[in-house]
Amino acid sequence: MSLAGLVAEPAPSPAPRGRLGFAALALAYGALVLLCLATLAAAGDLSLGRNPWDNLLRSLADFARPSFLDLWFGAERLEYRSDDGTLLRVEDRRAVEASYLAGLARATWVTLQIATLGSLLAALLALPLGLLTARNLGAPRPLAWAAKGVLDVARAVHTLVFGLVLVGIVGLGPTAGILAIALHSMGTYGKLYAESIESLDMAAVEAVRATGATPLQVFFNAVWPSVLPQFVGNHLYVWEFNIRDSTILGLIGAGGLGLLISEAVSLFQWGRLATVLLVVIALVIAFDALSRRIRRALR
User: What distance in Å separates the CA atoms of residue 246 and residue 275, rounded to the nearest whole number?
Assistant: First the structure.
């Protein structure tokens, strides 16, 4: 018998079937995109409006001069006159902008409070639900399905919708924003917790169980030490996202930077809007740099 006859033939590769499945999904996605474009075009909803380029250039020119520059370059005696030349009022732009920036600092702190407390509350609420949802921990099926349903509903409802409902319940202010962030993010945290737990090496968990440990002892001795770095990384990621998300909650009366954004847009004060957006960008960049350093320390 030849050596070639002793060598087993390799099993047929499933790659072609996988490529065909991917191609089918890509075609379905392309068909959906074309259908969206066709229906929007048929309804006349793809119009860019009147003079889009002029409007774009004018807006860019306004954004190019953020209002905080008035703190140094603003007119110290800006006169407002009526059409007939009557002096209406005199304004010190530098003093006005200094007052506005002080309010902006307070709004930034409120936004950070909403994101921080909402994220922490969401993480605490999601932990037991994530444990019940993780398939490898073997929670009773009715409890697992109930926990998964709660997490799915929380993820499906947008933070802004939660905020609108909660403003009507608890009133205007940061409390509504904190609860809105917590209820929506709870779904995200729970899913991430469950996925982290499902990626565990179950040998260590079963070894602790074999000693007769209670479920609580199994969690703190086998599960928690292994998933803690992932939990912290997930918390930092969602916290960073919530800092961005909480900036829009002021639009519905939850306080923070969203209120200043709403005022600037409604009054077409693009210079002030540019200042607020720069603060949001700086806040996110600073938090991203901090979270990267923390995640690196946990490795």
Answer: 17
**Which CATH number do you get for residue 148?**
1.10.3720.10
| CA–CA separation, 249 and 272 (whole Å) | 18
Kindly give the pairing relationship between strand 87-91 and strand 78-81: antiparallel
Q: Please check whether residue 169 lies inside any domain of the structure.
A: yes
Residue at 38 is within a domain: no
Any domain includes 85: no
Structure tokens, 79: 């006169």
Number of domains in the chain: 1
In a domain, 56, yes or no: no
pLDDT profile of the chain (299 residues), mean per 10: 49 64 89 90 78 79 79 70 69 80 91 92 92 82 91 92 90 89 93 85 73 74 76 87 85 83 87 91 88 78
pLDDT at residue number 57: 82
DSSP, collapsed to helix, strand or coil, labels residue 91 as strand
